[in-house]
Structures are given as structure tokens and as C-alpha cells.
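STRUCTURE REQUEST FORM
Protein name: Protein Smg homolog
Source organism: Crenobacter luteus
Requested output: C-alpha cells
Priority: standard
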Amino acid sequence: MFDVLSYLLEQYSDLEACPDREDLSRRLAAAGFEAEEIDEALDWVEHLDSEAGDLFAGANEASSLRVYSAGEVEHLPVEVRGLLQFLEDSGGLTPAQRELAIDRLMALPEEDIDVDLAKLVALMVLWSQQSELPILVGEELLAAIHGEPTMQ
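Status: completed
Returned output:
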């Protein structure tokens, strides 16, 4: 599934640039992805649409500290929670985008979640909302799909 997500990031400028699900499924199959992997990824991506982002819009209005629930602490490694805090502190994610990233991470199997996957999820959230981010933060996130960052 994660390879499909990376492919979408590389091939399409944003979520709206993607063709409809049926056409996109055909294109992904032609690119060599398995049907089950495609369906799983596209189901996951559907939750990134603008309505999903609107669910968390109130988080941008708050000036409070984010406290993780016991289930989130158990599901999300401390390094992932630290990355999300770093991204928010550096202006890479808004509080609403952080909440959407947490939501999408919580939808994934616990054993798959690590910092690189969290970077990919953060990129997917930003990609779906056509958001820009500071260049150094962007380089760090892109390292999750391309290897080491190019800037030093």
C-alpha cells in the first residue's frame, strides 16, 4: 500500500489531479501494483478528501496543548509523536493537518508505523490539501520516499 501512496505523490500534483477511482485503479494496475494493494491504498486516500480535513478545522482555532489518548500513545511510537510535534512547531503542519495525520496513522496497522511512514502520511495530508511547507521540512519528509535529503 505504501508504494502506491508514494507513486501517487510522485505522479500527481495533488489529490484533485487524480483521475476517478476506476481509472486510477487501472493506471495503478498498469504500473504493476496488485489489485488488493491498490484498493487498500485508495480506500485510505478517500479519507484525505476536503470533508475529512474540515472535521479537524477547529483545531486551528485552539491554543491548547495536544494530549494523546492512551490508545494513540499505544498505537503511535514516541518518535512518530515527536515528528508530528516537530512538523507542527516548524510550520510544516497546521493543528488540523496534524489531527488528520494522526487519524490516518491510527487507521494503519500498529506494527507498520514508524517515522518514515509518518513522514509519508504527513506528505499525503499536505498533498491532499495542496499545502506548501518550508523547504527544509519538505526535504526531510521527501527523504521518506526518495532516500536521504539533498540539502545539508
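Reviewer notes: Residues 1-46 form one domain. The chain has nine helices and no strands.
Form closed.
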